[in-house]
Predict the structure.
Amino acid sequence: MTEGPKPRAPNVSQDPRDELTLHLPALRAFAISLSRNPTTADDLVQDTIVKAWTRFEGFTVGTNLQAWLFTILRNTYFSSLRKYRREVSDPEGVYASRLFVKPDHDGKLAYADFQVAFDQLSPEHREVLILVGASGYSGEEASEMIGIAVGTVKSRTNRARKRLAELMGLAEGEDSLPSSDAASLALMGKSGAQAA
C-alpha cells in the first residue's frame, strides 16, 4: 500500500514561512470538508495563510505547523459562520431599503427651538399644554385640576398650540417635535413645569 506525498519534516534552521505552500492541499481539503463549498474553502485557506503570515511570532518553531494552520483555519471558519448567521440575506435590497435611523441632531435642534418658543408662552398656556398635550389629560380632567371651565381649557389649548406654531415658524398642521420622540415629549413636561 502506497501513501500519498507527505509534507517534508520541518528543518529547525529553516523559516517556517517557507513551508506554507506544502500545507496548502491539506488546508484546502480541510476547508472543503468544513464549508462544503470550494469557493468558500479557497477564501478560508487564503484568510488562514494571511493570518498565519502576520502571526508567525506566535508559532513555536519545531512544533506541528500543519496543526497550527488547521487551528487558524477552523477558528476562522467558525468565526465567519457565527457572523453570517446573524446576517439577513437581502440580495434585492428590499429589507435594507426599509431600515433607517433618524439622526439625533434633528431632534435636538427641533427640541431647542421648541423649548425657546415654549418658554415664551404665558404661564396659562404652558399649563394647559403640559396637562393636555404632554401629560395626556382630557379637557375635563385638566378643567378639574386647574379649576376653570372645560371650554376655557379647550380654547386656551387651541390658542397655545397656534401661538407655539407661530413662534416656531411652523406651517399649519406641521409637527413641532417628531411624534416618535417620546424623550422630547417627556422633556417638554419638565421644561413647562420649570417655566410655569
User: Anything to note?
Assistant: The domain at 17-84 is CATH 1.10.1740.10 (Rna Polymerase Sigma Factor; Chain: A).
